[in-house]
Write a structure and sequence with these properties.
- The structure is a single chain.
- By secondary structure, this protein is α+β, with helices and mostly antiparallel strands.
- It folds into 2 domains: 87 residues, Fusion Protein Consisting Of Minor Coat Protein, Glycine Rich Linker, Tola, And A His Tag, Chain: A, Domain 2 (2-Layer Sandwich), CATH 3.30.1150.10; 109 residues, 2-Layer Sandwich (TolA/TonB C-terminal domain), CATH 3.30.2420.10.
- 21% of the residues lie in helices and 30% in strands.
- It contains 6 helices and 15 strands.
- A 4-stranded mixed sheet has the order 1-8-3-4, with helices on one face. It has a 3-stranded antiparallel sheet with strand order 13-12-15, covered by helices on one side. A two-stranded antiparallel ribbon has the order 2-5.
- Strand 3 and strand 4 form a beta hairpin.
Length: 244
């Protein structure tokens, strides 16, 4: 009797309820997003170079060096900086990291597209010399002789204005030899460094001083400027003991 009752109940249940079809789930198609890996380099090109501010006390009175690993996005913004090789002083490492994060890297381009970049930057931190500093005037060989009323191949109309501080000599005496061309009015048009100081920025300051200058020459048969430009040469020395 119990078996008959169970069979009757099973038959009375609607077929669609007992054996319902599985619900169909609509799935969105998978999307593959390709992200170009960051460009790896051992040398970063900076749009704004890091400028760490530190004192001799931060260096503990000795020169220090460090290497930082730096990541920048496609716009050149520094997104991460970590110490690859430490200065040995954690506080000094943090000064370098802070300076790097305020700097800006030139975006790396491949086929016209900007890519994120990862690279390394070395820092050499020197104990600052506390010797007196001074500014240098444009006391070139010709200008000095001209000031002493000596005979010179040409004369500067006025002393060229030079913006140079002794700290830019990097603890060494420097000499710059150069030549230039002047038009028939004595205006200096083209300057060429014949022997550099070893510091590009210093050489360029000498060039800039000359470009804004004018000379005068006693005209002779060999220095007629009506038909061609005339070339001249000069040199200038910068000595550290000039500040003492």
């Amino acid at each position: 009797m119990k078996q008959i009752l169970c069979l009757t109940l099973l038959v009375s249940v609607p077929f669609t309820t007992a054996f319902s079809a599985p619900t169909k789930i609509h799935q969105l198609p998978a999307q593959n997003i390709e992200v170009a890996p960051a460009h790896l380099t051992t040398r970063l090109n900076w749009a704004v170079f890091p400028k760490p501010i530190y004192a001799n006390e931060d260096l503990k009175q000795r020169d220090r060096a460090a290497i930082l690993r730096i990541s920048a996005n496609t716009k050149g913004k520094v997104t991460d900086a970590s110490v690859e090789e430490s200065t040995g002083i954690n506080q000094l490492d943090q000064i370098l990291i802070a300076a790097v994060k305020k700097a800006e890297v030139k975006p790396h381009l491949e086929n016209g597209d900007a890519r994120a970049i990862i690279g390394y930057q070395a820092f050499n931190l020197r104990v600052k010399d506390n010797t007196p500093e001074c500014d240098y005037a444009f006391d070139s060989k010709v200008w000095t002789a001209q000031s002493q009323q000596k005979k010179t191949p040409f004369k500067y109309v006025t002393q060229p204005k030079l913006d140079l501080n002794s700290s830019e000599l990097k603890q060494h005496d420097r000499k710059v030899k150069f030549s230039f061309k002047a038009d028939k009015y004595g205006q200096i048009k083209k300057v060429k460094i014949k022997q550099g100081s070893g510091i590009y920025a210093l050489d360029q300051k000498v060039v800039q001083a000359l470009r804004n200058s004018q000379i005068s020459v006693k005209r002779t048969a060999s220095t007629l400027w009506i038909y061609k430009k005339s070339s001249f040469k000069d040199e200038i020395q910068f000595k550290l003991n000039a500040c003492q």
